[in-house]
Specification:
The complex is a heterotetramer of chains A (287), B (254), C (363) and D (285).
Chain A (H helix, E strand, L loop, with lengths): L1 H27 L6 H18 L4 H20 L1 H4 L2 H21 L1 H4 L5 E2 L5 E2 L2 E2 L3 H24 L1 H11 L1 H6 L4 H27 L1 E2 L6 H14 L4 H20 L4 H22 L10
Antiparallel strand pairs in A: 1-4, 2-3
Chain B lengths: L4 E10 L2 E11 L4 E5 L6 H8 L7 E6 L2 E2 L5 H6 L2 E3 L12 H8 L8 H6 L1 H21 L15 H13 L5 E5 L7 H16 L3 E5 L3 H7 L2 E6 L2 E6 L1 H6 L1 H8 L4
Helix pairs in contact in B: 3-5, 3-6
Chain D lengths: L1 H30 L6 H17 L4 H29 L4 H23 L14 E4 L2 E4 H23 L1 H11 L1 H6 L4 H27 L6 H15 L4 H17 L7 H17 L8
Antiparallel strand pairs in D: 1-2
Helix pairs in contact in D: 1-5, 1-8, 1-9, 1-10, 2-3, 2-4, 2-8, 2-9, 3-8, 5-6, 5-8, 6-8, 9-10, 10-11
The chains are: A mainly alpha (287), B alpha/beta (254), C alpha/beta (363), D mainly alpha (285).
Chain lengths: 287, 254, 363, 285
């Protein structure tokens, strides 16, 4: 049943991204609309390392995740100087800048043609080609991600992040480094997004800019908000629900000529309904 | 050897407003010193200057012989100085215990690496810190409200929690910004009793206070601030008796 | 007109009334900016299938095509491809756009499902997978014809390139650059335009400043707007293009006077174009015709398998295609490799007519 | 003289962008809601005018119908969606997500009703060109410049001369104070959404008149316009219009030195760096 396993694999990859977005937007309160760009860098870098170097798969993904840690810190630093609404536009800017680089840097990312032929993960001599095998990798990846998120939220680090979200000044007055906490959170979010990118590229064996554009960032944000902001449960539920949605909507037989546009329309309506009547999402806390 | 807390020649201008004008004073160790003066005299500005939230144009702050100039709020808390805010700034969506925990220093697992790679050590240390937080809450009489959300505490209880939170930092010099404002009756006496008890336990308090009766009952020294300048200092009796100061403060005798 | 229906009638087979319907799949971009082409491709397939079903289907079996919307994204394409192959057990899947096609190509090979691309021309598609067949010549073949014609027949020396910044556009630029310089011409400048953006004026101004003999344009949509803007800047160069220029809306535009372009020979009989317009309200232009032809090719393979009594699977379809090799759909399509070679014409638009200049038979 | 043509082309595009920026600035400065669906209202205006034209109305009447329709839609959006969200204490993120949803609803409705094809207004006079100082300008381009300047002056007159305009700026400068005085910010928000949405219909019709009508055409234009608004200093109408012109000219002139695909990337790159050093914008209103 490759269809079901493919759905689960993609959902699990998006859970890693959901954790990353929830950490930044939900918990620390940095409203970032450029997580898909970091996800993209993770995917392209892993693909590049696997195609042009002899690095084994685990090392390539870790390297990509490490670079995304640095990149995500850079991307979220402006939020320290620029407040709420202004940071939204800066974040839009960063995302569009990344898309321009993905689309035009034909040397590195294959440009608009994308990067075909990304090798499948090879661990201990076993090639994870079929979705039924690949699901093991993404389940472990998601598991590790959720474990880190859960441990972090239970520890003083999570309490510190929640306090920062409520009143940064008070936290500083209690002798805690707000900058240090935000940078650490951005680093963690970067690691999640980078590793998700690595898994995504090797699963699809093809990456192109369309998976990492502004729509993708907005989709990530929506997943977190509908699934439930600021909670682990919300980060896990969101991707599974929103990836299943188009398939569920496909069951309603709408005339094929307008079926697709109608589905996107219903998708938009759902967003509005959730924001009006249940802004905390299915399993989350108030944003 | 200079005084416990030595503030000398502080100046700070915000555009047209000269918030602090050559302001100097000292605070003795183990004493309760009240900072008095009409609204806008610069009392909170002094707190911001001492705790590193505000860089004065000129002037120095020394604590136990060590200069605090240019240090970050985090470093100053490490030296043992902590402050509360006039508008409380408690974490409304967290419980009383979590607010106190937020004030505690040297948590294990306050960074992501510790939280993730040493989970058991973190959990054990956190349990210890939780008990310590309970002790602090008990100290201010809030032990039975430990798990209540701050938004569900009474105003009096929130005032006590503010003090508990900075006690948790382990600071020895407490800068309290109007700890009794808005309180009356039992709640007021309870806070005043707490302040005296803290002094008896070796804490030094610098308190911004409007209520002259409170000043008379708890203050060892009084600093009278006007237009960002120290106009007078002395015992509560001297300051309150001085007609000129009363004129400035109330626009009429007591 | 179609050979299939005549054969079915000729055999007069008394087939069971409810002969099992044969289901095919299609993964196309039906929403988002790419929908403008995806919808036309969908209409082309549906129009061909409806026509065949109206005449009793293929050897008595009705054909049904299940459309899925991938928004031109690779992850959606892989998910929907697996859905169509696993759940609906389709033996063949139509695809459009180079990105998604390249994403699905390895899967098609592994699952032995025929992946039929009727519109994307990126060169990488030619060898992406044994199960990926392209019923439209890859751009390189077409542009080779264009370049040699321009230099040899029309005596043009210098050119500039205006290309859409996506897979098809970049492939077009690279192929034309290679062919034109191989034929002895010189490319002076090239300018990209973001996909979906019909504001060509700045790029045209920049290219016009290098005063080339011709400007080669490879864009998939917005050709009428391009024609208007070329006239507005009073450009002196001749505009040349690929088969995307055989769009009735462009040909009818007075500003397209003198546009020269290759045309992958695919013209529809009068009645069909009108029937398509009444049914869908849009022109039966390049993409619907290409996908009508692609659907016809697949249905001819299905018909052969049914007649030979073989099960309609991806593997058999591919074998049938290789066996039949030459298909007489809307155009003669010859499969020496995975990519069809078709007859390519050189046309020039004069007086709102697309006049033939030269015919180049498939190699 | 390629640079002159590019400059002129940049100024024309700057006027269209300026109208979107000014209309967005009016709304964003007053309500502080990040009204992303402004791009969809821009698209709606173009299609309403197109339908009015196809039903035989003369050009000016079709534009008027579009303007009125957009104004009504803007007021409805504020009344039924943003106001209800605001009253239930929604944060800016929640309102932004709702606005994104609304944008998807409107744009996909347009795609379903009008198909995703590039539609033409089919007005031949639009393409006729006249020579000005050695450069060619089409009637549509001249109209765009005319309407652009008119809209800018109109917005300035409205904001500074009319009573509603003054109330709007009061609400913008101090939302809390406005709440407790008799400014009735709720009514001002509805009015400003109506006016902003009506104004955005003009570029919504003029740009497709030149470049063809597409359901998803509004998003890139709005993002560039928000940069002009933010970089120009929120609340400053002059800032928004001037920055729109500057960005458009820079984008066009950048073709002189680099290939076109980088012009959008460069615009956002400069903006991100700019925001790091001048977070409050140039002409802080």
């Amino acid at each position: 049943m490759d269809f079901l396993t493919t759905y689960i694999v993609l959902a699990e990859i998006y859970v890693l991204l959901g954790l990353s977005t929830n950490l930044l937007v939900g918990i620390v309160g940095i409203f970032s609309v450029s997580q898909a760009a970091v996800f993209g860098v993770g995917a392209y870098l892993t693909a590049f390392l696997l195609m042009h170097t002899a690095l084994p798969f685990p090392v390539a993904v870790l390297l990509a995740a490490a670079l995304c840690v640095g990149l995500n810190i850079l991307v979220t630093l402006p939020s320290l100087r620029v407040s709420g609404d202004y940071f939204v536009v800066t974040s839009f800017g960063i995302q569009l800048l990344a898309t321009a680089v993905f689309t035009n840097w034909t040397g590195g990312t294959g440009g608009a043609n994308g990067l075909p032929g990304v090798p499948a993960p090879m661990i201990l001599g076993h090639e994870f080609l079929e979705p039924t095998e690949f699901i093991a990798l993404t389940t472990i990846g998601m598991g590790l991600g959720c474990l880190c998120f859960w441990l972090m939220m239970r520890a003083p680090f999570g309490a510190l992040l929640r306090a920062i979200r409520e009143d940064e000044l008070a936290v500083a007055a209690l002798g805690k480094s707000v900058l240090g906490a935000k940078v650490s959170a951005a680093a963690l979010a970067g690691a999640f997004a980078g590793s998700a990118g690595g898994l995504y590229a090797t699963f699809l064996s093809f990456v192109d800019p369309s998976s990492f554009d502004l729509d993708a960032s907005i989709f990530l944000l929506t997943m977190v908000v509908v699934g439930g902001a600021r909670t682990l449960a919300g980060s896990v539920l969101g991707p599974f629900v929103l990836l299943a949605l188009p398939q569920i909507l496909a069951l309603i037989d709408i005339p094929t000529s307008i079926a697709a546009a109608a589905r996107q329309l219903i998708y938009g309506l759902l967003l509005i309904v959730f924001m009006l009547f249940r802004p905390q999402g299915l399993l989350g806390e108030k944003l | 050897m200079s005084a416990y807390l030595q503030v000398s020649g502080l100046n700070k201008r915000f555009g047209g407003l000269q918030a602090l004008r050559d302001c100097s004073f000292t605070v003795g160790q183990g004493r309760i010193t009240c900072l008095v003066g009409p609204n806008g005299a610069g009392k909170t500005t002094i707190f911001n200057a001492i705790t590193g939230f505000l860089v004065p144009d000129t002037g120095h702050v020394e604590f136990q012989g060590r200069s605090l100039d240019g240090q970050s709020p985090q470093q100053i808390v490490r030296h043992g100085i902590a402050r509360t805010f006039q508008n409380l700034r408690l974490f409304a969506d967290l419980t009383a215990r979590d607010n106190v925990l937020a004030g505690m220093q040297d948590h294990v697992g306050e960074g992501p690496l510790g939280a993730i790679f040493r989970p058991f050590h973190t959990a054990r240390a956190l349990a210890g810190k939780r008990d310590a937080a309970m002790a602090v809450l008990a100290h201010v009489g809030l032990e039975d409200r430990a798990d209540a959300l701050v938004r569900n505490l009474s105003y009096g209880e929130q005032k006590l929690l503010c003090i508990a939170r900075i006690l948790a930092t382990g600071a020895e010099l407490l800068l309290l910004d109007e700890p009794t404002s808005g309180l009356s009756g039992a709640a007021l006496t309870e806070v005043m009793a707490l302040l005296r008890r803290l002094q008896s336990e070796g804490k030094t308090l610098l308190v911004v206070e409007h209520n002259t009766r409170v000043v008379q009952q708890i203050a060892d020294d009084v600093l009278f601030l006007h237009h960002g300048h120290l106009l007078a200092h002395g015992s509560p009796a001297e300051i309150i008796a001085d007609p000129k100061l009363a004129e400035i403060y109330f626009g009429g005798t007591l | 007109m179609l050979r299939i229906s005549t054969i079915a009638l000729a055999l007069g087979l008394a087939l069971p009334a409810s002969a099992q319907t044969i289901r095919l799949g299609a993964v196309l971009p039906l929403t988002g900016p790419a929908a403008v082409i995806g919808m036309q491709e969908q209409r082309g397939i549906q129009f061909a299938v409806d026509e065949v079903n109206a005449k009793g289907g293929v050897a008595g079996h009705k054909i049904e095509v299940l459309f899925e919307d991938n928004q031109a994204k690779p992850d959606q394409s892989v998910l929907l491809f697996n859905k169509l192959v696993d759940l609906q057990k389709v033996p063949a899947v139509f695809t459009g756009y180079s990105g998604p096609s390249l994403a699905m190509a390895p899967l098609a090979g592994r699952k032995k499902t025929l992946l039929v691309n009727g519109g994307a021309q990126a060169d990488a598609l030619d060898k992406a997978s044994p199960y990926l067949i392209n019923t439209i010549p890859v751009l390189a073949g077409e542009l080779d014809v264009l370049a040699t014609y321009l230099v040899a027949d029309a005596g043009k020396k210098t050119a500039a390139i205006l290309f859409e910044n996506n897979a098809a556009g970049i492939a077009g630029r690279d192929d034309f650059l290679g062919s034109f310089e191989k034929a002895g011409g010189k490319v002076l400048a090239q300018e990209p335009v973001p996909f979906g953006d019909t504001n060509y004026r700045p790029a045209l101004l920049k290219l016009a400043a290098t005063s080339p003999d011709v400007v080669f344009v490879v864009i998939t949509t917005g050709t009428p707007q391009l024609a208007d803007q070329v006239r507005q800047i009073d450009a002196k160069f001749t505009v040349v293009g690929s088969t995307f220029f055989s769009d009735p809306e462009l040909i009818a535009n007075p500003n397209a006077e003198g546009f020269t372009h290759t045309q992958v020979l695919i013209n529809a009989p009068e009645g069909m174009a009108a029937a398509f317009k009444t049914k869908y309200g849009t022109e039966f232009d390049f993409f619907p015709k290409q996908y009508y032809n692609a659907a016809t090719v697949v249905m001819i393979c299905v018909e052969k398998l049914l007649k030979d009594g073989k099960p309609v699977t991806g593997e058999n379809l591919l074998a049938a295609l290789k066996e039949i090799k030459t298909f007489k759909g809307l155009t003669t399509t010859v499969f020496n490799t995975n990519t069809a070679a078709t007859q390519i014409n050189m046309n020039r638009i004069n007086g709102k007519q697309d006049n033939l200049l030269k015919v180049i038979p498939p190699k | 003289m390629l640079w002159l043509n590019l400059l002129l082309n940049g100024l024309v595009w700057g006027c269209a962008l300026g109208m979107v920026a000014v209309s967005f600035s009016l709304i964003f400065a007053t309500t502080r809601f990040f009204h992303v669906a402004h791009a969809a209202v821009y698209g709606l205006g173009g299609y309403v005018a197109w339908s009015a034209l196809k039903h035989g109305l003369p050009e000016w009447a079709a534009l008027l119908v579009g303007i009125v329709a957009c104004g009504a839609v803007g007021a409805l959006i504020q009344k039924l969606l943003y106001e209800r969200l605001d009253r239930s204490g929604a944060t800016h993120l929640v309102i932004l997500i709702a606005s994104l949803g609304l944008s998807a609803v409107i744009q996909n409705s347009l795609a379903a009703v009008y198909t995703s094809n590039v539609l033409q207004y089919g007005l031949p006079w639009g393409n006729r060109t006249t020579v000005i100082g050695g450069a060619l300008l089409t009637n549509t381009q001249m109209l765009t410049v005319g309407f652009g300047i008119l809209s800018y002056l109109g917005a300035m007159w409205f904001a500074h001369r009319t009573v509603l305009g003054k109330r709007m700026r009061a609400v913008a400068s101090n939302p809390f104070l406005a709440e407790i005085t008799r400014l009735q910010p709720r009514q001002v928000h509805i009015a400003v959404m109506a006016i902003g949405s009506a104004l955005v219909c003009i570029p919504g019709v003029l740009v497709p008149l030149d470049l063809g009508l597409q359901p998803f055409g509004g998003v890139p234009i709005l993002l560039t316009a928000t940069i002009a608004v933010i970089a120009g200093g929120v609340g400053s109408i002059s800032g928004a219009f001037v920055l729109a012109l500057v960005i458009a000219v820079l984008q066009n002139l950048s073709l002189l030195v680099m290939p076109g695909e980088w012009s959008i990337g460069i615009t956002f790159g400069i903006f991100v760096i700019f925001m790091l050093f001048r977070p409050r914008g140039l002409f802080t209103g």
